[in-house]
Specification:
The structure holds two protein chains of two kinds.
Chain A: E1 4-9, E2 12-17, H1 22-28, E3 35-36, E4 42-43, E5 56-59, E6 62-66, E7 77-79
Parallel strand pairs in A: 1-7
Antiparallel strand pairs in A: 1-2, 3-4, 5-6, 5-7
Chain B: E1 2-11, H1 15-26, E2 31-34, H2 57-68, E3 74-77, E4 81-84, E5 90-95, E6 98-109, E7 113-115, E8 128-129, H3 131-139, E9 148-154, H4 158-167, E10 171-177, H5 181-189, H6 193-203, E11 211-213, E12 216-221, E13 229-233, E14 238-242, E15 245-250, E16 252-254, H7 257-261, E17 266-267, E18 270-271, E19 284-286, H8 296-310, H9 314-318, H10 321-337, E20 353-355, E21 360-361, H11 371-378, H12 390-398, H13 414-421
Parallel strand pairs in B: 1-2, 1-6, 2-3, 6-19, 8-15, 9-10, 9-15, 10-11
Antiparallel strand pairs in B: 4-5, 5-6, 7-16, 12-13, 13-14, 17-18, 20-21
Helix pairs in contact in B: 1-2, 1-8, 3-4, 5-10, 8-10
Classes of the chains: A mainly beta, B alpha/beta.
Chain lengths: 82, 422
């Protein structure tokens, strides 16, 4: 059993197993949609390998970070548009 | 900005990149290897979050060999995207605000492949993922327990992904392969006992779900942009399957952004390389999927050849040619078996989104335009993914070549740009 990491999704405290990506953690939190398209449609990750950019979220204040390429870190602040 | 000097710079640490880095370093070259992900393995050898020991034996062996290299022989930079090549032999890598400049005598491009997504009604709904994408989702820690999933599209990847999803607790409802049964049967007949056993082991993981060649998804349906069901056809009749997760993609296409930026010649959508994996650009080698989609075994031997050749061991590199030729034959059979049927060009309706990043529907595009015209009139390909998703689709739909590239290869902050220029 790996240790659990405490972090925040849109201000709400949550935890995930160490090594989980931000995109996977959002999925586990029931957030299949993590952003909105340019015309406002809900969108979630598609490729999960850094190509499509649909998984992009704001991490620790930095926008447009691909959630599928980043592992959750203690105290991380994830904010979505969706 | 840190500057690193290397004899060999390897970009990408999937099977091809790992093999190249290992062979070059073991041959005495000073290697710097970079990958965007936070650990090595690429896609096919991506390790499980919870069960790292579940990786294939070959992956564990090569990772061990990589790990045994002393730090001076091979410096590994993960979470680093190569965004530019400002001069021959020079690569600019970015890790958030940190910039690294790699000056290398030779470069090995091992950037792998991505999935080909074809647009169809409902493909942009949350819960519709790629095939490799669904596997990556599970491997990166997501739970799919209890989800009803349809795996669809084309290629040998459908089976292992359906198995991964089933073993992770999902209910695999159906596996839909667009290639006709006759071609799948011929392909299976030509497989050796090892590969057949592998396929059988995958198949038994989802015994109650049908594997249907000659079928494909025509739409994802449900209320309010959710996934509730898919409409499936075999070309004659249509039916519906309830599901809440769709894993769909139509084969793989090489990641050619970096090699195009380096000026490497591309023919028929793949990098042209010679007998020792050298591209058309001096001192730039390429290995794995960028030279032609062919799977992990071919990627490995190409990586070995490229690494040896980059380190000056041409004779040893050439000695591996017979193995490469045998595996190339398998790659050819893959291409023939899983060629995409023309009906897939008619899935998208006029209002179906063709470019996800800029929300451009299909009916705003004119097939007679050039890609450049399409870009200028509609912004297709100008969004975050820079044409990586829509490019492959529009190439299949309209025959548009996806051949322009501009640095930075991925979005970077102004801070990183300033750093790179300093």
């Amino acid at each position: 059993m790996r240790e659990r990491v405490a972090f925040r999704i849109d201000g709400a405290e949550t935890t995930a197993e160490a090594g989980t990506t931000v995109a996977a953690a959002l999925w586990n939190a029931g957030r299949l949609a993590s952003r909105r398209s340019v015309s406002g449609a809900p969108r979630g990750p598609l490729c999960l390998m850094g190509i499509c950019f649909e998984c992009r979220v704001t991490i620790d204040g930095q926008r447009h970070r691909r959630g599928c390429l980043e592992a959750v870190a203690p105290g991380m602040d994830v904010s979505t548009e969706a | 900005m840190e500057t690193l000097q290397a004899d060999v710079a390897v970009v990408g640490l999937g099977p091809a990149g790992i093999a190249a880095a290992v062979r070059a370093a073991e041959a005495g070259a000073r290697v710097v290897a970079l990958d965007e992900a936070f650990s090595s393995g690429g896609q096919i050898w991506r390790g499980y979050v919870a069960k790292p020991r579940r990786s294939p034996r070959l992956a564990r062996r090569w990772h061990k060999r990589l790990g045994r290299l002393p730090a001076e022989a091979c410096r590994i930079l993960t979470r680093t995207s190569v965004v530019d090549s400002p001069a021959p032999g020079v690569l600019t890598g970015v890790n958030e605000a940190e910039v690294v400049r790699v000056e290398a005598a030779t470069i090995v491009v091992a950037t792998g492949a991505r999935e080909r997504f074809l647009p169809f009604p409902g493909w942009t709904r949350p819960g519709v993922l790629g095939v490799g994408g669904a596997q990556a989702l599970v491997k990166s820690g997501a739970s799919v327990k209890g989800r009803r999933v349809v795996v669809a599209g084309s290629g040998p990847l459908l089976l292992p992904v359906a198995a991964t999803l089933a073993r992770a607790g999902a209910r695999v409802v159906a596996v839909l392969e667009q290639a006709p049964l006759s071609r799948i049967w011929d392909f299976a007949k030509g497989l050796g006992p090892g590969k057949l056993l592998e396929a059988a082991l995958y198949r038994v993981a989802f015994p109650r779900a049908p594997y249907r060649p000659g079928t494909w998804i025509t739409a994802v349906t449900g209320p309010e942009l959710e996934v509730e069901a898919v409409t499936i056809t075999d070309g004659r009749r249509s039916w519906s399957e309830r599901c809440d997760l769709v894993a769909s993609a139509y084969g793989l296409v090489p990641n050619l952004e970096l090699p195009r930026l380096l000026g490497c010649r591309v023919e028929a959508g793949v990098l042209v390389v010679n007998e020792v994996q050298l591209t058309s650009v001096p001192e730039v080698f390429a290995a794995g999927e960028p030279t032609g989609i062919g799977g992990a075994d071919l990627a490995l031997v190409e990586g070995e050849i490229a690494g040896l050749a980059a380190a000056g061991r041409r004779g040893e590199a050439l000695a591996l040619r017979p193995r490469r030729q045998r595996l190339e034959a398998f790659a050819r059979r893959l291409r023939e078996t899983f060629a995409l049927r023309p009906e897939l060009r008619d899935l998208a309706k006029p209002e179906t989104i063709a470019c996800r990043c800029e929300d451009v529907p299909l009916d705003r595009l004119r097939p007679q335009w050039t890609p450049r015209q399409a870009k200028l009139y509609t912004r297709v390909g100008m969004g975050a993914c820079q044409g990586r998703v829509c490019g492959a689709a529009l190439e299949f739909l309209f025959g548009w070549p996806a051949d322009t590239v501009r640095p930075p290869l991925v979005p970077v902050t102004l801070e990183a740009l300033k750093e790179a220029d300093s």
